[in-house]
Amino acid sequence: GQAMEISDGVFNQSAAGESRIKVIERIVDQAERVLIIALYRLPIISQRDSAGNWSFDWDDDALYSTSVGFRKGISSRKVLWVGILNTSFEVSDDEVPLIRKELFDKFQCYPLFIPKATLTKFYQGFCKGVLWPIFHTVNHVSDQNGHSSEFDDGLWKVYNEVNEIFAKAVIKLYEVGAMIWIHDYHLMVLPGYLRKQLSGAHIGFFLHIPWPSSEAYRILPMREKILAGLLSSSLIGFNLFDYTRHFLSACVRILNVQQESSRGTIGISYGGRHVVIRVSHIGIHPERFSEAISTSSVQEIESRLREKYKGKFVLGGIDDLDFIKGISLKLEAFETLLESIPKYRNEVVLYQVAVPKAARVQERIRDEIRNRVKTINERFGTPDHIPVEYVENDIPFAERVALYRVTDALFLTPIRDGLNLIPYEYLISTEDSGNGQLILSEFIGCSRALSSALRLNPWSPKKLADSIDFVIQRDPQEVKGRHVADTNYVKSHTTEKWIESFLKDLETANEPVQNVLYLGLGLGIGKRLVEFAGYSRLSIAEVLKSYRSSDRRLFLLDYDGTLTSTASSSRMEHAWARPHDKAIGNLQRLAEDRRNTIYILSGRTTEILESNFGDFRAIGVAAEHGFYYREPWDPEWKTQKNVELLDRTWIESVHKIMQSYTRRTDGSYIEVKSVGLVWHYADADPEFGIWQAKEMQQHLREVLRGTEVEVITGFGWLQVRYRAINKGTMVSRILGSMLQEPSFVLCVGDDRTDEDMFSYLDDNLDPTKSTVFTCTVGIQPSLARYYLRHSDEVVNLLGSLTTNELRSSVSSPEDVKTAIL
Description:
Helices cover 40% and strands 20% of the residues. With 821 residues, it is an alpha/beta fold. A 9-stranded mixed β-sheet has the order 7-6-3-8-9-10-13-12-11, sandwiched between helices. The longest helix is centred in the first third of the chain and has 21 residues, at 153-173. The two termini are 36 Å apart.
């Protein structure tokens, strides 16, 4: 719709695309950092009376019932909320500016108004219909009629459209220094949209639901795009390490990125950035429940329930009416208990609340639950006793607390769930009595943190029934002791402390500002980015300027990944990788100028390099990282060291070790060179390949300790080579063979072996005599001063240099760029 702006605190419609909203000027001191919170629904309750007047208030049950604690946790900050207004009323165009003004003035909320048809496709269609089942490992490969399920591309398009609407709103509200915190699976591609426009912004994302195993996640057709969107964040948070592990696995297997850890911090290097991954579960606001206990509304309901169930052992459960909550399994276990232990038929009550959610209620699930309840009550009920009290409705806060207080044991049996804060609420609500017990599915995230909980597989009705029997007979002193320990845990892991900790990490995130260009999805943060000081994109104009003014030029170019389109060690790609035709043509033209000295330095064998550059005698070539080399205009291959004088006894033992790992690692293979060995594992299972490479690296370093060889690793490969022979020593030899020190040096490479060149040039060339451009291909931690994004850009750079020489009438770098483009 139309863009919005704030003028003197009032939202006004603007017909044309206007400047961004100056929110910070009105609500914050410039010295403070604004926090922009983006979530699907604003934590606001809206009402409209018969006269059409609107009223608004905070929704204390929003954000998974943590809204109160959440607002308290950010109370010392200047906050802006962005989300849709959760209302069943139609909002007319005339009402929009008035509602926006009131929500902003009273609540600092910026509501988004999206057509209902779009929201239905977005929320019920994609979020709940596609993402929710997969993220809870419920994969619908067929529909209820047995037909194969087909993915609707239109729903994915709508998901992106809504995320883009959120992005435009956040960008309007953003000012430099603000932090952005995005919540949950509804907005997983939002970080990517924001990063395109807000380079340097501190963007946090927290997923409140589970992350599925990589095998389940791979079902999504848009799996790469969602991961790339998330990795545009500075900080990504998960409730449990299990979810983090699954996410890291998906990144490794789908995006082929590597995970890292240092001093307890987990991260992923992606797009030249280090994205921090955080494991910290949300909590509750204990005071909300402890204070509610003494209210008349809670006490009245509690008194009525205690009278009704006097002398009974009450099992309580509050669940969404959803298949994943396992209510049917709970009922099956309860029925098993009553069948096997008759004395409990009149002594135990299951009070089950099933909260229907419009987007997730399935009629067959509802009918199954109702039928089970009916069967149990008909089999074991009496005129004076109903075994199952089933409530299929939302439950008000006061009634919820009252139910917690009369419940002797909380009984939850989801087959897959997130953290689930109901046990936390239950413990605080029963703190004064200390009698609350927990029977929890092992698939509930919080079950691991609570020592008093009986953790069980919900698919085993007999064991669940036995657990009920166990808690009924449990020693009261043991119950109270465990209750105290768990209550203290809940009180020490509150929503407020979780927020404080998360925002502290987000605030200190080292997010670089990319002022010149947008580098694509996957731009996020990184503590490792301190290594990127002075690291910027290579300017063709600067290279041209230096090139034109120099008469002694040296080109040092890597082969794989620099002159070829891939640096992959996938066996077929590695075997068939050849330089671009344009690259060969550009090199030929550059070599025709006697002021240019050109060397190709590669880890490849002499045979491969001879087959590609044998006809180009004007170009020097170095094979096996410089052990063999052929100077320009000299057909003879030479060696940096006499092969006969080298100790090569290590090769046989290393080859045997590599063979043993190759046999155990499908997809791996060994590349044998004259003076080295390379183990390639890019075609292996990504996680297993990395694991095996680390094991082999440690194994070989122990075996080779004290020898003149070293073990180095790169993306998809591990190599054993002579320590004293590398591309750096080859560069030393090349410079030594030149009559004068070059005044222009362009050195380009893409992996670990090229760092030796960058390091040598930085340490040994006089910057007052030589202009040196060290450049890595791909945005990554490097000793190079510059980067290019892809080998295609290397080809274009070489082409621009030849164009500059061929078109002498073009006198400036800017003119050259214009001519090229």
